[in-house]
Design a protein that fits this description.
This protein has 341 residues and is mainly alpha-helical. The chain is built from 13 helices and two strands. Strands 1-2 form a two-stranded antiparallel sheet. A hairpin with a 2-residue loop joins strand 1 and strand 2. It is globular. It is a multi-pass membrane protein.
């Protein structure tokens, strides 16, 4: 099967196949994706740009500020590239920007995914350590250490994104250049092997392992807070949970349809083909829409709507990124106990 992939489609769905859908279905999916990309670009660049400006230049650097600043940078970089994908959709899957930008555009999308989930994992581990080892955290949990961890996160994210830069390609005649994953079309077995490896690796390292760690950390936090009878529903805690849930809701369907795509490539079942052709672009759009959600969660979670607009943006972000997440009371209690020994 020819491997010509649109930016918004899973890695092996061909645009020719997608265009074989009933025209009303194809047009509806196409229009939906285009609207989502435009909205994500407008909201993502402004919202994340505002977070970067306030957190990066107006606020004192705390550990939480470093974490949320990194999330905003990852989302901002991705949304900044969205006009390329929007143009690709407007031109009905003609890529006029050359092979290098085809590779870079795809790599940036998954750089955003890996950087976001790795940062969320680090946040969860940080919260867990602060609850379980409050004295150690009080002495060693510093913005400098957070910056070092953030650099490691970006290095790992770049490493896992290299696959998409290596295998992405642009080809076709002058009137219709496609941007697609070239897993080696001349050897279908090799193509299928690389497709499987890419999907499985992305799911394991970009979803399953991080969410296992995150779930474990927050389970420990809830148990510890309950045992110590500390409040666990303060605003920063709610924001972290909201960010995690939004990531899960936006990205999990994408991973499901990636596996359906692999199954279709192995069986070429017509029902799977229809599911991938329709669901693939929709779940991809949903995944990328995640990049514009977080700034609005910071503003509105746990606040009265009217009060929000009576408060300065800087004040809103300062409260959202505050260190008071339920651990402070444990830190104080543990420190006092250690002084009595």
């Amino acid at each position: 099967m020819e491997n010509v992939t649109a930016t918004i489609l899973p890695s092996n769905t061909t645009t020719e196949e997608t265009e074989d859908l009933p025209s009303i279905t194809f047009n509806s999916v196409h229009t939906f994706s285009l609207i989502v990309y435009i909205v994500a670009f407008l909201l993502g660049t402004t919202g994340n740009g505002l977070v970067i400006w306030v957190a990066g230049f107006r606020m004192k650097k705390t550990v939480n500020v470093v974490w949320f600043l990194n999330l905003a940078i990852a989302d901002f970089i991705f949304t900044l590239f969205l006009p390329l994908s929007i143009t690709y959709l407007v031109l009905v899957f003609h890529w006029p920007f050359g092979t290098f930008m085809c590779k870079l555009n795809s790599a940036v999308a998954f750089l955003n995914m890996f950087a976001s989930i790795f940062t969320l994992t680090v946040i969860s581990i940080d919260r867990c350590i602060s609850v379980v080892f409050p004295v150690w955290a009080q002495n060693h949990r510093t913005p400098r250490m957070a910056f070092i961890v953030a650099i490691i996160v970006w290095i790992l994210a770049i490493f896992f994104s290299l696959t998409y830069f290596i295998f992405r390609d642009a080809a076709g005649d002058e009137g219709q250049i496609r941007c697609f994953n070239n897993f080696h079309d001349t050897d279908y077995d090799l193509h299928l092997l690389r497709l499987k490896a890419t999907v499985i690796t992305r799911f394991i390292f970009g979803f399953f392992i991080p969410f296992t760690i995150i779930f474990s950390c927050y389970t420990i936090i809830v148990i510890r807070l309950h045992r110590n009878r500390m409040a666990s529903s303060t605003k920063p805690f709610k924001i972290i949970i909201a960010v995690l849930l939004s990531f899960f809701i936006c990205w999990f369907p994408y991973h499901v349809f990636s596996f359906l795509e692999v199954a279709y490539n192995e069986s070429e079942d017509d029902s799977l083909r229809s599911a991938v052709e329709i669901g693939g672009p929709i779940t991809s759009s949903l995944a990328f829409f995640n990049s514009c959600i977080n700034p609005f969660l910071y503003v509105f979670i746990g606040r009265d709507f009217k009060t929000t607009f009576r408060t300065s943006i800087q004040s809103i972000f300062e409260k959202a990124f505050s260190e008071d997440n339920g651990q402070t009371e444990i830190k104080t209690k543990s420190t006092s106990d250690s002084q009595l020994v």
